[in-house]
Design brief:
single chain, mainly alpha, 6 helices, 85% helix, 0% strand, elongated
């Protein structure tokens, strides 16, 4: 379930940022955000989407996504999309990337490396 949520969130973040970056003037008018904020948020959304799609550093991306959702709610008012982004971010931050995430493989590699260091010291 968590892996599916991560992949869906990643695809949404990538798609919304590409639409915004393709026509920033229209996106600024549609979203009611100033251009100085809209472009960095779109760039951050694209980077988060790319990292979440690969499943790498999903807990860190979850924290950043939760902060991004909170920023949007605090700056531009309550909306469904920023609240869902924040909740998905908190979920990913607490649960990790779920299935198909690189975090699982990185953790296994770190455990093997720690095991080798402990066996050499013994």
């Amino acid at each position: 379930m968590t892996g599916s949520i991560r992949v869906i969130a990643a695809i949404y973040l990538l798609a919304s940022s590409v639409i915004t970056l393709a026509d920033p003037q229209r996106a600024a008018a549609d979203q009611g955000m100033p251009m100085g904020i809209l472009l960095p948020v779109a760039g951050l959304s694209f980077a988060l989407g790319a990292f979440l799609l690969t499943g790498f550093m999903s807990r860190v991306c979850g924290l950043i996504l939760a902060c991004l959702g909170a920023f949007q709610v605090a700056s531009y008012g309550v909306g469904i999309v920023p609240i869902v982004e924040g909740l998905v971010g908190v979920h990913l931050m607490l649960r990790g990337g779920g299935a198909w995430a690189m975090d699982i493989y990185v953790q296994k590699m770190q455990d093997r490396a720690r095991g080798r260091v402990v066996s050499r010291e013994s």
